Amino acid sequence: RYAPGVARIHEGAWYDPDKGGDLNALCKYGNPNVLTLDIGTSQLAQATSAHTTLVEIEKYTGPIDNVTAFNGPVEMVAQCEYVPASQGNPHD
Question: Rounded to the nearest 10 degrees, how much is the dihedral formed by the CA atoms of 35, 39, 41, 46?
Answer without folding.
Answer: 100
